[in-house]
Amino acid sequence: MDHLTDILTAISHPTRRAIIGQLANGPARFLDIAKPFDTALNAVTKHLKLLERAGLIERRKQGREVFISFRAEPLREVAEWMNEYEHFWNERLDQFEGYFEERNREEKDSK
């Protein structure tokens, strides 16, 4: 899979988006991340692995504890990809608007 696919896959699940939201407030330990979810720890581990593969989180060992941090940079890649389509749709909508403006002018002129 390409990197953009990894990122989109990672953010496609509500639990992973919730984890990102939680980590946006600062680094946390695994058990702190897992606490709000009514799921097995193994499931949280799988979610974290997907987020890590996408580059959205990083682990840092501090003594005996491992802290997990959010990395926002990969979301920029998604934003850039989406921005290309925003231009596409804006152009199409402008054409659509132009069509109706021309049609309205023609109707007024024919009266």
Summarize, please.
This protein is of the alpha+beta class. It has helices spanning 3-11, 14-23, 30-34, 41-53, 73-110; strands at 28-29, 57-62, 65-70.
How would you describe this structure in keywords?
3 strands; single chain; 111 residues; alpha+beta; Arc Repressor Mutant, subunit A; three-stranded antiparallel sheet
Account of the protein in words:
The chain has 2 domains: 3-71, Winged helix-like DNA-binding domain superfamily/Winged helix DNA-binding domain (Arc Repressor Mutant, subunit A), CATH 1.10.10.10; 72-111. The chain has 5 helices and 3 strands, in the order H-H-E-H-H-E-E-H. The chain has helices at 3-11, 14-23, 30-34, 41-53, 73-110; strands spanning 28-29, 57-62, 65-70. The chain has a 3-stranded antiparallel beta sheet. Strand 2 (57-62) and strand 3 form a beta hairpin. Helix 1 (3-11) packs antiparallel against helix 4. It is elongated. The model has no long low-confidence stretch (mean pLDDT 92).
